[in-house]
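hey all, quick one before standup. I had two proteins in the batch that finished overnight and I want to keep them in one place so we stop losing track of which output belongs to which input. First protein below, input sequence then structure tokens straight from the run.
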Amino acid sequence: MKLKRTQKQVLGHLGEDLASKYLKSKGFSVLARNYRKKFGEIDIVSEKGGRVHFVEVKTVSCENLESVTEKILDSFRPEDNVHSWKLRRLSNAIQVYLSEKGYGEEKEWQFDVITVLLDEKNKIAKVEHIKDIVL
């Protein structure tokens, strides 16, 4: 029996799909999606130029993307939902991923956030890649 996904889960999956397409369009290889461990999940693992990028995707739906102003974006940004406890959990998942793949301490990696503002009605999305966030 397949469980029905909530609207939030559907929105999150759509945002991850758009983020994956965005990364591929920028020359990244997507190595994994939804890498899960009991203490955390990494939305996307990608690689470019020998550096592994662990990507957290935050998606927000809005009624009309064209009406979204910088003032609105300043008051609520999807990346604000990446809290310190989430970063700790992600850090643990990242370390396990690196270990499982046999990457040594010398493997270059970084943590990024991709935000997706999604106007489902008009089928428009705005994707922003925030790179190299300190864990």
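OK second protein, same deal, sequence then tokens:
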Amino acid sequence: MNKDNKLGMGLGALLSTPSGKNKTNEVQKINISQIQTNPTQPRRKFKENDLNELATSIKNQGLLQPIIVRSIENQQYQIIAGERRWRASQLAGLHEVDCVVRDLEDTEVLEAALIENIQREDLNVIEEANAYKGLIQIKKITNENLAKTLGKSASHISNILRLLELEKGIQDMVIDGDLSMGHARALIGVPDAFLKAKEIVKKKLSVREVEKITSKFKKNKK
């Protein structure tokens, strides 16, 4: 099975054991202090309430799904998939967590992190956009090919990727839930977009109202 097919099938296929590498799926206990986050992890925001709820669940029922890690130097491990579970396990006061060790290259680690994020239902659209961008760069494919592989429309991929044209301040407002994707899309290519974004939040404008305000700027560009 080639890697493009594995991408389409999801994280489990990518992390399936390759011949000659980590031939066991054995779960092992690893001290939580030996585990490090992945610096290329595209997900930056973890909701405190969600983490606390997961920590309570882990306290009551244990960690139901092991964390996927790879071995790095000095008896340390780096998270491939499961940073949210790792964070919640710390809140739950665990000293050790169940892990499965995988031997993956840097690009495979990033790919796994991106796929895990895409598969999460609560992923915000900016993180989703960064995940798509990362996969396009890693696999050197077009938007259309990525859309086919993930079973999404090409227009969905393109529309989400366009959000990365917005300045960081507006992207942060989307991540924080102050602006919807519809609001953000209406601000693409608009002068003084950040000031308009703050005005949208302050006045609690609807997407339709924002589109009406910004349409004149887009007409002038045609």
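Flagging for whoever picks this up: The CA atoms of residues 81 and 113 lie 6 Å apart. Confidence is low (pLDDT under 50) at residues 1-6.
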